[in-house]
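REQUEST FORM: STRUCTURE PREDICTION
Request ID: SP-0412
Submitted by: Lab K.M.
Chain count: 1
Length (residues): 361
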Amino acid sequence: MDVLYDYQTFINQRFGGISRYFAELMTRLPQGYEAHNPVVLSSNIYLKSVPGMEFATMWWPRFMKKYKKAHKINKFISRRVLRDGNYDIFHPTYYDPYFLDSVRRPYVITVHDLIYEKYPEMFPINDRTAENMRLTIKNASRIIAISHNTKRDLMELYGLSGDNIDIVYQGYGLDNSRVEQIPGLPERFILYVGGRFGYKNFTNFCEAFSIIRARYPDVELVCTGTPFDADEQALLNRLGIAGCTRSIFVTEPQLTWLYRHALCFVYPSLYEGFGIPILEAYACGCPVVLSDASCFPEVAGDGGHYFDPQRPESIAASIGEVLDDPDLRKRMVTLGSEIVKSFSWKRVADETAEVYARTLS
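STATUS: Completed
RESULT:
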């Protein structure tokens, strides 16, 4: 079976969960399935590891200041390939409905979350992602939801019956055999990974950490990602935690080191489609303290220690319980290491291939 993917996520993301998902999927499809992707210009770091896709990043430096031009080139080529019809099934990598007038075969779409529907106030008023999602989901032959929570949201918000929705959990792929120490970090620190905007609930988490810092003056906060912006720096200053909080951009080997040495990893989001960092922390033996919201209990199971993400005092209390109880930490690490074994990218590819076959049948 020939499966056609497109350029969308590989030009929208240099790195990130959705592009990682599709790169792993294209790499691991079972025998009898062949992935095709006509993307020719991309800066995505995962695409380089997909067999046959190395050329797609070759010319990107020449187009770094011409994103719109690169986007148009990729869209033009994808449309041409779609119209040729030399594929069995199409799997778009995001929600731009550009392909609806060109696709000649059934298509499957993966829905990672309904954040644009759940929290529209957190996005620009002219953002059309929610509208595009409704259009592409409505016309899909089958829908893949990456958790039961996402499937429930689809049924509730879109009024779908669920008959053509398949649940395929995300996979885990951090290579924790490669570790790179980061010099200059505190001996005792709490770890925060990922974006800090809107629904990520960073403000409530910082307020919780200020409570923790008052109780544990030797514990600091390490965040991964971009430097703090002016508003975030003002928040840290207001709470009196600017001097014990830092943000650093890390490689995967460095992230592994952080997970292995953190007192705990805290995931305070109000909403996520899945939550890959949970599995990353589990695989590295890091206790996970997280929201009792959206898909988190479904993914983290009994290995996580939960809090109410709307209440900073609840976040602080749960973190404090983990810091104070070595037996609890040990039990969480043991449970987490077992839970992560049930998630793999190979399973994702095998179950997605079953969805493809079901779509054509």
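NOTES: The mean pLDDT is 93.
Reviewed by: T.R.
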